[in-house]
Write the structure tokens for this entry.
Amino acid sequence: MVTPVDIYEAVRDFLEAGGLVVQILMVVSAFLWALILERELYYRTEMKQRVESLQSIWDQRVDHSSWHAKKIKQRLVSIASREIRGSLPLIKVVVALCPLIGLLGTVTGMIQVFDVMAAIGTGNARAMAAGITRATLPTMAGMVIALSGIYFITRFDNVLSQETHKLNDHMVTH
């Protein structure tokens, strides 16, 4: 049976083997997941009420057909879109940065391998292995974090599209 101590030791070993870049990726990952959870909570708690309040603002208007009314409708849909979008652009940036940060780990790990090769030659595979590990773990970690974020980006984009289209359709102009 796996204990919490075993998990802690495995994570600690992974962070040590991957070096500073993996530690940076862990912080970036925590930030990414905080942003994702914030959006998820907004969608589950506040979004429906906010969209309904914007819809009620439109429903209270007497004039739905003039140029001015159409501009107000565009503004209300734009407000809803901006609020539903929220931190989605920042989530997209963080997801895009994760593989690049992992690539930075690859470069720094390879530099370590070349330093070992310059100092003691190519005959000591054990000395080069630490650098190779330091080169591959950050890349893998960056890709895994990015892949997990891509699912939520797609999901959040779909929610944004559906809700803004639904609101636009419900705000009937005569």
About this structure: The chain has six helices and no strands. The radius of gyration is 25 Å. The CA atoms of residues 40 and 127 lie 45 Å apart. The chain has a mean pLDDT of 90.
